[in-house]
Amino acid sequence: MSRVLVPCHVKSTVALQVGDMRTSQGRPGVLVVDVTFPNVAPFEEITFKNYYTAFLSIRVRHHTPLHTPSKWVTCLRDHCLMPDPHSEEGAQEYVSLFKHQMLCDMSRVLELRLILRQPSPLWLSFTVEELQIYQQGPKSPSLTFPKWLSHPVSNEQPAPRLEGLPDPSRVSSEVQQMWALTEMIRASHTSTRIGRFDVDGCYDLNLLSYT
Amino acid sequence: MLQEESDLSLIIAQIVQKLKGSNLYAQLERQAWACLQRPEIRLESLKEDIKEFFKASGWEKKLQNAVYSELNVYPLPSHPSAPPEHLKEPLVYMRKAQGSWEKRILKSLNSMCTELSIPLARKRPVGEQKELLNKWNEMGTDEPDLSLFRPVYAPKDFLEVLINLRNPNYENGDSLSFRTHLGLIQVPLKVKDIPELKECFVELGLNTGQLGIDDSTQVPPELFENEHVRIGQKVLVQQDSAAAQQYIRQGSPTALRAELWALILNISSQPEDVKLTASNDDYYFVFEDYLYQVLLCFSRDTSVLSHFAYNSASPPKSYIRGKLGLEEYAVFYPPNGVIPFHGFSMYVAPLCFLYHEPYKLYQIFREMYVRFFFRLHSISSHPSGIVSLCLLFETLLQTYLPQLFYHLREIGAQPLRISFKWMVRAFSGYLATDQLLLLWDRILGYNSLEILAVLAAAVFAFRAVNLMEVTSLAAAEAVLADLSTLKVMPLLQIFLFATVT
């Protein structure tokens, strides 16, 4: 489940608007952000911080072999980031989108195009920030179990499945994942400092600090 | 693994982590060790037998209640990239506003200390300590001279801050357009409308029995009240928090209320090691003493600091012996991080009617504070936060009583200026106590403070005829000055379910 940051170049946003941008009164409701990769990358996850974008579509251009022209394909259509475009809900949330949510295969991505839409005229601007793309990282060695635990020998007679019970191999893999998560959290958990109000039994205080 | 499953695993891992540090975990461990002596526990099926034992002895229920409590109080684990401030409050401009407000309070407190030449804190001299211990149970009668002290802030100061709250990315144009908010609150938070509120508060509907309506003297108790009390007793026997929370949406019988609240808030019956040296003599208690005891201990209770993880506010810091900036000398002040405001004790006072043992009273108050009351005096975008409550009140009034709203606005009596003080104190001190407790039953039952805004709008609707005739803010205040005769449940029911829209 580990992931690796993919180096990419995020171009500045381009607004799509009808008419002359300089003289027009209205604000653009559609923005486009292009993301290019120096190397062809297998896409796993994209994370970003939303800033008042209501809907997100993503189009992708795949790497095609031998000079066949690659076309733009939509891999995410109108994903809703703000349930009500006129109100604050979801406006500044951190979002992750995974490859299983995409409509097409994402193993050889050349370029990504994010199409941001905000139909409400109430907001002065909108965008997405802290854009990061990840690919699947190498499997962490501490999580691998002995082969006989995770992959029972195929010529063993499987025990008769009782009715109504979930598939044992699926349950065991989920339990493994949960165990790994618990271990991860336990390892990274810094014990919160117990609030104290005195130092060595002394609590002479004169002023409160502003920082 | 699909996203939903991995989210669930993360929540489970977070709750496990939380509960591992708790008293309940230690107790469960002890119980597990102790039950090994029992004949029904066999080595070959150790895990299953211990689980069976926990189920039969009621410990599984206690664990279920603890998990349910965690799910109710703590927000879901946020995105891994989100910094801790984001969990306190996701909107950057609200965080900044809360920070400025806190700075103002600190400045006010500091200047008061310098003016009066009083240190913020010092160790009590030994003589004074002895005196305090002796007088512990009669503190109300021996007040120190507080005449020079001003309250740190009053609710109306806080209201001014909320009125000036602005989103820098929002179209706050001067010219009146469809986007102008006609009330005092100018931030576009999402609030529910009446159809959504009807769905949310479905148990308050006309076809469901309510305490506060269907237990009045004219209604024969066989119709609803007797059965409701019977179910309440059953819920208490089962000791199930989730069932209690669902049950209390229809109100709690007076005799069962103290236990039901303790069950819902997951308060253990063991007295904690609190500094309340409760003497067990029978004495005639005066609430004033209780208030002093509870609030004194509350201000020193450092376990309250943990709620700042999900509170947009932050505890003030100070440095011992003037060693400004040196981290080893940094402490929180007050020890629980909460600076009280004028009227703060009103959060405790109604609870004195329910709990007679000081330690239970204290635990209930502390849990009520870290679950609900803190949201009433910090700036956040949470649906139960005071900003959302104010906006919900104004929106309900404007949408469903537009003539009244317009009239009050025209005469310079913005409705929020009158209802703000009710909501900030959760109506404590304004309603009759029995009505207030019926209202707080629903706060616990729905785990939300939105009912306060709905009640405020319902009160205005009830007195609409008189209010249409006033011509000044002072006159409007006079019409709404006395709420002590109001019956809250009929008001809420009529406003939500019986008003023609």
TrEMBL record, chain A:
This is Nicolin-1 isoform X2. It comes from the Eukaryota. The gene is Nicn1. One of its GO terms (cellular component) is nucleoplasm.
UniProtKB/TrEMBL annotation, chain B:
Residues 251-447 form the Rab-GAP TBC domain. Coiled coil: none annotated. InterPro entries: Rab-GAP-TBC_dom, Rab-GAP_TBC_sf, TBC1D19. This is TBC1 domain family member 19 isoform X2. It comes from Mesocricetus auratus (Golden hamster).
